[in-house]
Amino acid sequence: MLEKVISILFPVFAVVAAGFFVGKAFKPDMRHINRINIDLMVPCLVFTTLSVMPMGGQQNSLIVAAVLAVLLPGVLMFGIGNIMSLPFKTWGPPQMFRNSGNLAIPLFGYAFGVSAEAPAVLLFVVSVILHITVGMALLSNSEYRFNNVLKMPLLWAAMLALVFNFNGWTVWNPLNEGMTLVGNAAVPVMLISLGVQLTAIKWSGIRVGILSTVLSLVTGAISFTLIYFFIPLPSEHMRMMLLFAMLPPAVMNFLYAERFKVGADEVASMVLFGNGFTVLTLPLLLIAAFAWL
């Protein structure tokens, strides 16, 4: 079991480590690369994956499970925040919107094989759509405009993919091959970007990082328990949901916290330490997924 877990995690952590050392050595400005990734590479990945993904009862159940895995931690954090005097706009979104892109897509691919790649992208799309709609609404102020959501290429790629899927349409093969080639670059760039971002860790925020990580595991475990008992999923999808529900916060949480001025320094600590602690948490979660589900 240990050898299997290491073989799954090593490629992911190796690329993240490469990004970390590149970040330390060259201090690259990743903003433009990340923009190209989220506006070009990721939409290509989403379209080429979802447009041919078999749709049916299993996928519908997976979508419902993903929505619950995102929203339930927010409900839980509303109560926990009141008890512990933690401002919801700072602490709620990082518990809801987790690293379903940089970490989950490659992780699920290595853990569960090629068959998991399409469901992993579907989970990512659900999470991102909720983040740019519900998440931005939770942080809303005078800067929030729903029209900005409609300008995101990823949203249109997902909608167009579903139209092609439901109608049984196919893309001209050379064009599809080109989009696939671009989409295949998305995941490595995500991992390298995550490694570069980890160079920004400030040890003064470790207490916030530890508390956030503990809370994310607790809220994720409660959410997964409800999904396990009330939503019928095949075993592979259930294993994916265990990991999905307890992933660390997505980097986008920091970008939104900075934009809406809701404790950006604290959110940065939650994101960076949460992703850093996956060296400890992911092996345990993988062992649990394979041993108990």
From TrEMBL:
Pfam families for the chain: Mem_trans (PF03547)
Transmembrane segments: 6-26, 62-84, 120-140, 152-172, 178-196, 208-231, 237-256, 268-292
Keyword Membrane among UniProt keywords: yes
PANTHER family: AUXIN EFFLUX CARRIER FAMILY PROTEIN, SLR1864 PROTEIN
Organism per entry: Grimontia marina
GO cellular component entries: membrane
Keyword Metal-binding found: no
Keywords: Cell membrane, Membrane, Transmembrane, Transmembrane helix, Transport
Membrane topology label: Multi-pass membrane protein
Name of the featured protein: Putative transporter YfdV
GO biological process: transmembrane transport
